Amino acid sequence: MDVEALAASVEAGERRALARAITLIESARPDHRAAAVRLSERLAGCGRQALRIGLSGTPGVGKSTFIEAFGLMLTAQGLRVAVLAVDPSSARSGGSILGDKTRMERLSRDPAAFIRPSPAQSHLGGVARRTREAVALCEAAGFDVVLVETVGVGQSETVVAEMADLFVLLLAPAGGDELQGVKRGIMEIADLILVNKADGELRAPAQRTCADYAGALRLLRKRPHDPEGFPKAMTVSAVSGDGLEAAWDEMRALADWRKAEGHWERRRAEQARGWFVEEVRQGLLARLTAEPAMRARMQRLGDAVSAGETSVTAAAEEMLAALGEGLPPDAPGG
């Protein structure tokens, strides 16, 4: 694979090249992983930054409809928009529907937009294993806004905040006891809560739901990286377009404030460090199945735990010790 040519095509903003690059970084083949590392290194110093927006919401809230309407509004303003949509994977077969391009038909045809669905597989947090690298590739390709759509609301969805500049929570009106339906953990990381479907008969319920969440947000402790008034709740309609411009204005205002106050760069640096730690963790886990000796030891210890011959804690300690034996002699703990 000509990594240099692929990197040049990505930097030129070619969507097909970007799709090939993301396919490369998502591959688990050893030769592809080596090429992916070279590609990431080659593009790391391009210096381009996009506004990274994480988006989550309850099932049926209309995330895809919102993203399409929001994305078309941004491209109409001359911005380039990338959408990284993560679909839940079957625990039985491992497959995913990956139907986001079908649900966002108009946006997928927009030359200023790029939509990439990826399977979550077994990775927790509502994101795919390589979503962070895909975000970096989209930035290198010159996109102005990168939207990361997670699989749905849950406590583990907070992982998406570790790779986004802004986190938006999309909710629907008239859903019963809404405040009980969303966990506090995700409420505490949301920068903007958007109550969707605020049109027609649902306009009044949407306004009431928005007022409920605005009241709940006021009870949360103020975060140091937020200006006065944030986080906040607003109503939007992906169908009529009402509130989309106002929501975008609030997103830009918050991003500009964080840049001016130094929070933006500090947050990006912390996210990069967290990404590094996660890569090391995942690499260690991969060794347990990639190396025959490690795989055999895992099987033996697993059998011993199943038979009651040893405790889970003791077996885990032995496995960790075996990993430590594989470190280079000059490594800490080696």
Percent of residues in helices comes to: 40-55%
Number of helices in the DSSP assignment: 14
Q: Can you say what the CATH homologous superfamily of the largest domain is?
A: P-loop containing nucleotide triphosphate hydrolases
Q: Which strand order spans the largest sheet, edge to edge or round the barrel? A: 3-2-4-1-5-6-7
Give the CATH class of the largest domain: Alpha Beta
Total beta strand runs: 7
Strand content: 5-15%
Described by strand count, sense and barrel closure, the largest sheet is: 7 strands, parallel
Number of domains: 3
CA-CA gap between termini: 35 Å
CATH topology description of the largest domain: Rossmann fold
For the record, the CATH architecture of the largest domain stands as 3-Layer(aba) Sandwich
Query: What structural class do you assign from the helix and strand content?
Result: alpha/beta
How big is the Rg? Answer: 22 Å
- Low-pLDDT stretches: 89-97, 121-126, 328-334
How confident overall, as mean pLDDT?
Answer: 83
Oligomer: single chain
Q: Please write the string of helix (H) and strand (E) elements.
A: HHHEHEHHEHEEHHEHEHHHH
Shape: globular
